[in-house]
Design brief:
about 325 residues, alpha/beta, Rossmann fold, Alpha-Beta Plaits, 2 domains, six-stranded mixed sheet, elongated
Length: about 325
C-alpha cells in the first residue's frame, strides 16, 4: 500500500544542510498497522508528512496504492490526498466549529451536499463512539474525545491509508489505550492501512504489526514486532526486556538469554530442563509480555550442572532463541 524508496529530505542551504531523512526504504502492506519508532529529532514527523506531501522530499520515491505521490501537484495531489487521512498529536480542530462541523469540513471541500454530509457525519460519530456529542465544541470535549473527532474527520473521505502523527502522546495512559483500541478496531473492520509514528514503546507493543526504528534520519532496524521482540540482540527487544548485566556465573555454570514466543511462552520450559537434564536454573531477570497480541518472553538465566550443554541444545531444537552471554 505504501512503498518508500531512497527517500531523502534535506533542510537548510548547501553550506549548512540539515539531513532529516537519509535514504529511507520502507514497505507497508495493505491492511497492516506499521509503526515508526524513534526519539525526538529522529525524522519521524518529516517522514510521515512526506507520505502525503505536506513536506516535499528532496529526492526519492513514495508510492501510495501504486501511485507515485512525489510527481503530483494541484488537483491531482488533492485527489490523491483524499485517500490518505491524517490525525495529529494536538488534534488540529477548528475551535469555532462543533464536532460534527469539524468532521463535515473535508466533506464540504469534496463537494458533498448538506443532507449527504449529515448522513456521513452521523455514521462517523457512531463509528468513533461519539453518538450525541456532535453539537459539542472542542472546548467542551476531553482530550480523548477531541482525538476521536480528529479520527472521524480523517475518515470522512473514506481513505485507504490513515497516517497517525504522535496521535496519543498528548493523552493520559488510559485514554491512550482506548484510542489505540479504536484504531485497531478500525483497522480490522475497515481493512484500513495505518502508518503511525511514535516515541512510545507501549504503542508499538499494543497495536503494531511491524515496526521500523528510526535514528538520525535512518532506519536502523525493521521487521515484525513479535519477531524482533524474540531476538535478544534486537534493539526493540532490548527496549522491551532491559537486562541488568554484571552477573558472573558460578564455576561450571553459564549465563544465557532465552527468548520464548507463542505457545513456547506458555510452557513450563525451565522446570522441564530441571527434570530432564538435572540442571539448576536461576532466573536472574526477565518477563513475559503481550506483543502484537502474541506472548513473547525473554529471560536471563544461570544454568549449572553437568548437562548444561545438552540442555541448551534441547532448547535450540525447540526453536527457542538462546544466546550464551
Amino acid at each position: 500500500m505504501i512503498t518508500i524508496r531512497d527517500l531523502t529530505k534535506v533542510y537548510g542551504s548547501r553550506d549548512a544542510p540539515i539531513v532529516a531523512l537519509d535514504g529511507i526504504n520502507l514497505e507497508v502492506q495493505p491492511g497492516e498497522i506499521f509503526g515508526v519508532l524513534g526519539q525526538s529529532g529522529a525524522g519521524k514527523s518529516t517522514l510521515i508528512r512526506c507520505v502525503n506531501l505536506l513536506e516535499k522530499p528532496t529526492s526519492g520515491s513514495i508510492q501510495v496504492d501504486g501511485q507515485e505521490i512525489t510527481q503530483l501537484s494541484g488537483q491531482d495531489l488533492r485527489k490523491a490526498r483524499q485517500q490518505i487521512g491524517m490525525i495529529f498529536q494536538h488534534f488540529n480542530l477548528l475551535s469555532s466549529r462543533t464536532a460534527a462541523e469539524n468532521i463535515a469540513f473535508p466533506l464540504e471541500v469534496m463537494g458533498y451536499g448538506r443532507l449527504q454530509r449529515k448522513v456521513v457525519v452521523e455514521e462517523l460519530l457512531s463509528l468513533v463512539g461519539l453518538e450525541g456529542r456532535g453539537n459539542a465544541y472542542p472546548s467542551q470535549l476531553s482530550g480523548g474525545q477531541k482525538q476521536r473527532v480528529g479520527i472521524a474527520r480523517a475518515l470522512a473521505g473514506d481513505p485507504k491509508v490513515l497516517l497517525s502523527d504522535e496521535a496519543t502522546s498528548a493523552l493520559d495512559p488510559q485514554t491512550t489505550r482506548s484510542i489505540l483500541q479504536l484504531l485497531k478496531d478500525l483497522n480490522q473492520r475497515m481493512g484500513l492501512t495505518i502508518l503511525l509514528i511514535t516515541h512510545e514503546m507501549g504503542v508499538v507493543k499494543q497495536i503494531c504489526d511491524r515496526v521500523a526504528i528510526l535514528e538520525a534520519g535512518r532506519v536502523i532496524e525493521q521487521g515484525r514486532v513479535s519477531d524482533l521482540a524474540s531476538q535478544p540482540r534486537s534493539l526493540l527487544a532490548q527496549e522491551f526486556f532491559p537486562h541488568r548485566n554484571g552477573h558472573q556465573p558460578q564455576l561450571g555454570g553459564v549465563i544465557a538469554t532465552i527468548a520464548l514466543t507463542g505457545e513456547t511462552a506458555r510452557k513450563p520450559i525451565f522446570s522441564h530442563l530441571v527434570r530432564q537434564f538435572d540442571v539448576d536454573v536461576s532466573i536472574l531477570n526477565g518477563s513475559i509480555e503481550t506483543v502484537s497480541q502474541q506472548r513473547v518472553g525473554q529471560f536471563q538465566v544461570e544454568l549449572s550442572g553437568s548437562n548444561v550443554k545438552s540442555a541448551l541444545e534441547y532448547l535450540r531444537e525447540l526453536d527457542v532463541s538462546v544466546e550464551v552471554n
